[in-house]
Design brief:
Elongation Factor Tu (Ef-tu), domain 3, single chain, 6-stranded parallel sheet, alpha/beta, elongated, 6-stranded antiparallel sheet, Four Helix Bundle (Hemerythrin (Met), subunit A), Rossmann fold, 17% strand
Length: 445
């Protein structure tokens, strides 16, 4: 509970700072002298643009993997917030030209890049970059944009939108004529550049000094592979079971061709670290071709999903679907290495019996842990005596303890999004506390 309280107060601190730095430019820029003879809606549109630009710049701090910022919430929450607040920032910035055009249709001539002023061109170019960024981010899968290609252009377009937007604001000059107001935005610009320096230069340099070597590739059930690595020249990664990391192989940390995967090995043995990866697309299709001896880099750990933050629980419940078993295996292996005696329930949904990843090891763990396992198969064999179909509310009510007291049993959920949505809804209907339900959605992009 002490760890949870620590994260809670740190989380409040970061929220307060985020709100302050989001609103400070708006209020400070409205202070002091303002241009005379300008109608309300024009001034209101400028205010929205300043607020949106501040939010845009803060998004880079959210996604720069600054561990103290993410730790109180977990990466899922941070990225979910990033997605939503980015849409708000986009809406605020887009409102600026729309309100201008509604108030004075003659200003539509500013969209003509051949005749418009350079300050107008900068603004139009910045907004265009922002529109492309938002469309590509929200429609990446429909547009079939490869993940790392999208990440590269997501960063380029985001940086371009901020630079062009600030260029537009400084060239227009309204509200920035006072030195201290220009200084405020210059301070924001410097802070933003420092975040970029950390993410694109300092962090890769740090990772270059802590390489890993692939020691084995293990074929698992369910078209899945476990990649095991060992640290080279350092003591390895200290992590909590259930966390994830970004891994880079056949490249350097500067190439930004990294991919996020849950750690599947025990936290008690940092001398080796394993990631279990299902062949689904992009990089994952190449995992089986990796060879022992190849160099790799690991950026992590990240995420708040795990038992170590919920050590007060009297019981743990793991609900996994398919390759969602990966963080659960890290937790199960760690509990076994710690000689844990508390009861653990594993509910594991799969398409068929032969595709159950880690099936044999899970059965063996019953001998080491107070572990109950329930398999749910969509397409069971003819002689199957277990659960069939999907994880339902009736099944959960029958299997899970009737004790609904908060903090008694902590429930961890990971798997395909439709399964997670349905199970989370069922758990809430069964009156489990939302604080006791922990979901790893991995919606990073």
């Amino acid at each position: 509970m002490k760890i949870a309280r620590n994260y809670f107060f740190r989380g409040l601190l970061w929220v307060g700072l985020y709100v302050f730095f989001s609103l400070a430019p708006l209020f400070l820029l409205l202070a002091g002298p303002v241009p005379a003879g300008r109608e309300f809606w024009r001034e209101f549109s400028v205010a929205l643009a300043f607020a949106g630009t501040a939010l845009m710049m803060l998004q880079f701090a959210l996604t720069a993997r600054i561990r103290p910022v993410k730790e109180p919430y977990g990466s899922d929450v941070v990225y979910f917030f990033h997605h939503k607040i980015s849409l708000l920032a986009f809406g605020l910035i887009l409102s600026h030209p729309l309100l201008l055009f509604l108030g004075n249709p003659r200003l539509l001539s500013l969209l003509n890049v051949f005749t418009a002023s350079w300050r107008a061109r900068a603004g139009v170019a910045g907004l265009t970059a922002l529109i492309i960024l938002v469309v590509a981010a929200s429609k990446r899968q429909q547009l079939k944009i490869e993940y790392n290609t999208w990440r590269l252009w997501h960063g380029i377009l985001g940086i371009g939108a901020v630079v062009l937007g600030l260029t537009h604001a400084f060239m227009v000059g309204h509200y920035l004529s006072v030195p201290w107001k220009r200084g405020l935005w210059l301070a924001y610009l410097i802070a933003w550049l420092l975040v970029l320096l950390y993410y694109y230069v300092l962090k890769p340099l740090q990772l270059m000094r802590t390489p890993y070597e692939i020691v084995r590739i293990t074929a698992e059930r369910g078209n899945t592979w476990t990649v095991t690595m060992r640290p080279v020249g350092h003591s390895g990664l200290q992590f909590m079971p259930g966390q994830f990391a970004w891994i880079t192989v056949r490249g350097t940390p500067f190439s930004k061709t990294e991919n996020p995967f849950s750690i599947s090995s025990s936290a008690e043995h940092p001398e080796e670290i394993s990631f279990t990866i299902k062949e689904l697309g992009d990089f994952t299709r190449t995992v089986s071709s990796l060879q022992p001896g190849e160099k790799a880099y690991i950026d992590g750990p990240y995420g708040s999903f795990g038992i170590d933050r919920q050590d007060h629980a009297s019981k743990f419940v793991f609900i996994a679907g398919g390759v969602g078993i990966t963080p659960m295996m890290s937790m199960l292996r760690t509990l076994a290495d710690r000689n844990e005696s508390r009861p653990v329930q594993l509910i594991y949904a799969n398409r068929d019996w032969d595709g159950i990843t880690f099936r044999e090891e899970i059965e063996a763990l019953k001998q080491q842990l107070n572990l109950s396992v329930y398999y749910v198969l969509e397409k069971p064999p003819a002689d199957w005596q277990g659960e069939t179909g999907f994880i339902t509310s009736a099944f959960l009510e029958r299997i899970l303890s009737a004790e609904r007291q908060r903090n008694f049993q902590e429930i961890f959920l990971c798997g395909p999004k439709p399964m997670m949505d349905a199970v989370e809804k069922a758990l809430l209907q069964l009156e489990f506390s939302p604080d006791d339900i922990h979901a790893e959605r991995f919606s990073l992009a």
